[in-house]
Here is the input.
Amino acid sequence: MFLTRFTILLAAFGVAVLSVRPAAASDILKEYGIPVTTGAAAGYIPDTTCAECHQDKAESFSEMGMAKSFYRPSPDNVIEDFDNAHFFHAASNRHYEMQQRDGAYWFTRYQLNEAGVRIHKFEQKVDWILGSGHHSRVYLYQTTSGELFQLPLAWYSQQGGKWEMAPGFEFSNHLGVNRPVRQRCMACHNAFPDVPEGSDRLGMPELFPVHLPEGIGCQRCHGPGADHVEKVLGGDSDLKDIRAAIVHPGKLPQAQLYGICYGCHMQPSVAVTPELRLGRSVYSFRPGQSLSDYKVFLDVDDALRMREDRFDINHHPFRMEQSRCFIESEGQLGCLSCHDPHVKIKPDERAAHYRAACLSCHESNGQGLPAMQSGLIHPDIAPDADCTTCHMPERRTQDVIHVTMTDHRIVRDPGPLQSLKQPIAKVPAEIVGVSLLYPDTPLSAAEKLLAKANGVLLNQNFKADYAAEAMADVMASGEVAQYEPWISLSRAFYAQKAYDKSLAAAERGLELAPDIAQLRLQKAVSVYALGRQSDAIAQLQALIADHPNYTLAQYDLAAFYFGTDRLEQAREQVLRVTQLHHTHWQAWRLLARIEARQGNADAAIKAYLTGLDIEPAAVSMREEFRAELERAGRGDQAQRYEVAK
Here is the structure.
């Protein structure tokens, strides 16, 4: 441990640093073998370094869900039931299994034909687990390119535990094994990774290094720790400077303090997530900054639910802010009123802990019960219960339907408690409006409109023409000089098949940010759609030279080669895609088409089968597969691959 090398340690908090062996600040961390991140999230050190001085905090925090948010599968952290690890999803007519082999987790998905034989079997080793397991776990794999994808099966820990479909996979038309995990997601589910500067800007390839932090650590709330530790080890800083080099959240103004929590826990709707402010990158927020300078929070109008009836798994502050307690406290009631982020309250201490939190504001009647405004006697509280049992009850979440969570909307009478936890069907939100959660957020009218319009476009897969028109009007006014809206505009115009407008939008964005990969890709695909195939191919070749792991561009280049009858180049290129992203089913379909065009029937059939193993719901690929079997004189084999109804 590096502290054993100190000549004199910090004897007590509040005593000035005496002396340690001096060294240049830039060299001291390297000398002690402490790695420091650079690039997009610079200045972060391993949390084990923090634990050297703050052992008690580190030990207690290690029991918190945040500390267990992301990690490698291991025989030491198994909580699942592998003896009963089969799940049949009737909606998609697919069977799922999770197995443990030699300490590794293996995911399997298959279907059955009319003879009961397994077909379209897909296996994938799990690389990462996301979720503490206090409520659930989901499973990720990483491709050679560095992309992360979520698998459809999840483990739900409550009520004895069970295997079920992961959130977002409940219906038949889900993304299968190709649901991408974005940097925006990982920025809240894990500590910041060590990635190149600028790689976390909107429109850059969503790639992750092989080695990632494991869990949300100290520095997500306290800020980068390298400068702090440098000052401790350097020997020439006094205690005031050492303390000033790290963020103490409890000493921040309230808005900045709760900005740390709200940055991840304020999410009014999973259907329309908060927008990053223009010019901000994913890993750019630091504790102590104003959250409103980093994110724009959006709320929605749901045609199926009133605002007060919406309850998602990540609704803690959203529901709390609807409470009379929060409103009348003028915001003094907050996360830390009840929660110490370093300490997990023991089960036998929870009742007293949360009751004390409530009674710090509410008067007691002298018998340990809350004094009621009506003058009536409050009902007795069971020894194992507390105020939250009735006034902040546990209820089932509407977006993650196999989980129950504490509802942070404090109510006088929640109604029958047991009914709140009953199983429910997944009913996606029907978004009919998007607004700012905080209308007084200090933004220009243009940026407010852009945030709302972009939220609509993302929710509607860029097919909301009215939102694109509103965004185009703002950008035409010249009020906004950032590149990000041009990405959405180009994608929206491309979805409308207005390829000239899509190209113009991409070019406007590139004038502002010529290195943004997605703008370069949008320009190339628009140019191709306008009939300038050679120009488009040259642009993609240049883009791939700069970003060789950008599989979207790699695949489009293969498709462009195929579309211009350059079959050998197309084949070589699409094989490169399958090496970078082995589950890219469209690439396997393209390979099958190339092999079929070249008269290689067996190779084409093999590629089609690989694609169908990855995505058995691809109807057009299945039809092409049947046709290729017929052409090869093997039409009698088609029935073998037909899924039983």
The CA atoms of residues 555 and 577 lie 6 Å apart. Residues 70-189 form one domain. The two ends are 61 Å apart (CA to CA).
